[in-house]
Specification:
The protein is α/β, with parallel strands linked by helices. It has four domains: about 120 residues, Rossmann fold (3-Layer(aba) Sandwich), CATH 3.40.50; about 100 residues, Transcription Regulator spoIIAA (2-Layer Sandwich); about 120 residues, Transcription Regulator spoIIAA; about 55 residues, Nucleic acid-binding proteins (OB fold (Dihydrolipoamide Acetyltransferase, E2P), Beta Barrel), CATH 2.40.50. Helix content is about 35%, strand content about 20%. A six-stranded parallel sheet has the order 2-1-3-4-5-6, with helices on both faces. Helix 6 links the parallel strand 5 and strand 6. The N and C termini lie far apart (about 80 Å).
Length: about 475
């Protein structure tokens, strides 16, 4: 102590120093602010479009000083983004609200999305719900809910669907997955007899190419995204702005091809009547758009397609598949199919089964029909018993497993480029090839979010493709 140099003032008295220097004080202030930040958690049900919107809403919260946390991390606020394609999605929403209440009994619970738009009062009656926001209001929830103080009774903000039709809300996912889901289109004009989406999301509308390209460049500038998945309710119907068709989907993807910094683009789903030869040919020669199409079928029976009010018949679907395989033999083709639609007889179902069995497709997404209020199908004659619906679903799930395995077997021995994801379990990591083969490899932290050329060697017991480093091939001199 005696050797310490003590600074003194003009009167010879020791100077009084602050207890903390500025940098330490600043750090403490940050810690205090973090401790005072309200924590918000998100849960998303449904499609890629919902994921893109949830991620965008989460960024709005973070910009306002909220701390995004996991669902189980005792959040102050829960935001549940819902789907209402099937009855099962409604049940899931109820279960998630119940779980949120268990985790944070005093937390604020807001339910948004399609189910919220369709049945706001029904959701408000779920014990534990504090607020319900419809399709137009969900992007304004921070302003509308003002501090997230739990109300005496649930608040409902769900306007008429006509208001939804007036605007397009841009959205993309970021930080949640290796791939980014970029919303390019919303709503639907097709009015299929089984579907509630036009009631929940309104008419078909799109973002401008300029805005979409700007978002893609913004994503690329992060340096962390290798693949963008274009998503929408009816993605192939892209181009309707202010109620008028101003662009075509093919024009958009041609411009996206020129974006630097993104190695891959993937089309999430596209109707067969909108999947033109022009689009197929473009993807076949593209350096960035990958050979993978997800093309909804819904039924292999023309009678049922008519009852569903689909805009094509099985013959057109078969033509689309044949054209894809002609230009891209290694292309992955996914199929949506509904079983148990009203009026679907055993003969109709067998037509669907045989049609799919003979098609050169890679996997099926099987949906069991469920009655949805305010849709024409809900009042149709010929209701299929639940037990029969379940059996038909089981048969198509087995067929899907066979289709997927056969497709994977065709890829054994080939080289592919895998985008590895931050999906690690028991020392293994997973990713997808360009043509959507799911790959399993030994975990390497350097590979997360990276593209890697691999040799596909076989299928493991879980049904994933095993890979090795490709062997070097030396040219003979």
């Amino acid at each position: 102590m005696d050797n310490d140099v003590v600074e003194k003032n003009n009167n010879g008295l020791p100077l009084r120093k602050p207890l903390l220097n500025i940098s330490t004080y600043a750090k403490l202030q940050i810690i205090i602010e973090i401790c005072n930040m309200k924590k918000v958690a998100f849960y998303t049900l449904g499609c890629k479009l919902n994921y893109s919107e949830t991620s965008t809403i989460a960024r709005l919260f973070e910009q306002r000083g909220y701390q995004k946390v996991d669902f189980t991390d005792s959040p102050d606020i829960f935001i549940i983004n819902t789907c209402s394609v099937t009855e099962n999605a409604d049940k899931k929403c109820r279960k998630i609200v119940k779980e949120a209440r268990k985790i944070s009994p005093d937390g604020y619970v807001a339910v948004i999305g399609c189910y919220a738009q369709l049945k706001p009062r029904e959701i408000a009656e779920i014990p534990g719900v504090d607020a319900v926001l419809g399709a137009a209001e969900k992007f304004q929830l921070i302003e509308l809910l003002d501090g997230f103080v739990r109300p005496a009774a649930p608040q409902i903000f769900a306007g008429d669907i006509a208001r939804v039709n007036q605007q397009f809300h841009a959205a993309y996912s970021y930080g949640d997955r290796t791939r980014t889901f970029l919303k390019v289109q919303d709503g639907c004009n097709y009015n299929c007899s089984f579907c509630t989406i036009p009631l929940a999301r309104g008419a078909s509308r799109s973002d401008t190419p300029e805005n979409i390209l700007a978002k893609a460049r913004e994503i690329a500038a992060s340096g962390e995204v290798r693949e963008i998945v274009l998503t929408g309710v009816n993605t192939g119907d892209y181009g309707i702005i202010n109620g008028k068709r101003q662009y075509r989907f093919i024009e958009l993807i041609r411009q996206l091809e020129q974006i630097d910094g993104i190695e891959r683009f993937r089309i999430s789903s596209i109707e067969p009547n909108l999947l033109t030869d022009e689009i197929i040919s473009f993807v076949a020669q593209s350096q960035k758009f990958v050979p993978h199409f997800h093309v909804p079928l819904q039924s292999g029976s023309n009678k049922i397609l008519g009852l569903m009010r689909r805009r094509y018949r099985r013959e057109l679907y078969a033509e689309r598949v044949a054209k894809i395989k002609e230009l891209m033999p290694n292309c992955c083709i996914g199929v949506d199919v509904i079983v148990g639609f009203p009026g679907e007889t055993d003969e109709d179902f067998l037509q669907t089964y045989q049609f799919l069995n003979e098609l050169d497709v890679s996997y099926l997404h099987v949906f069991t029909y469920s009655e949805r209020i305010n849709t024409p199908a809900a009042t149709m004659q010929g209701r299929v018993p639940e037990k029969i619906r379940a059996e038909r679903s089981r048969m198509l799930h087995i067929l899907s497993d066979k289709k997927r395995r056969y497709f994977y077997e065709q890829n054994i021995g080939k080289q592919a480029v895998v985008l590895f994801e931050n999906d690690v379990e028991n020392g293994m990591m997973y990713g997808f090839t360009e043509n959507y083969v799911r790959v399993a490899a030994k975990y390497d932290p350097l590979l997360v979010g990276e593209l890697k050329t691999v040799q596909m060697t076989g299928i493991n017991p879980e049904g994933y493709m095993e890979v090795t480093e490709p062997e070097l091939v030396w040219e003979k001199v």
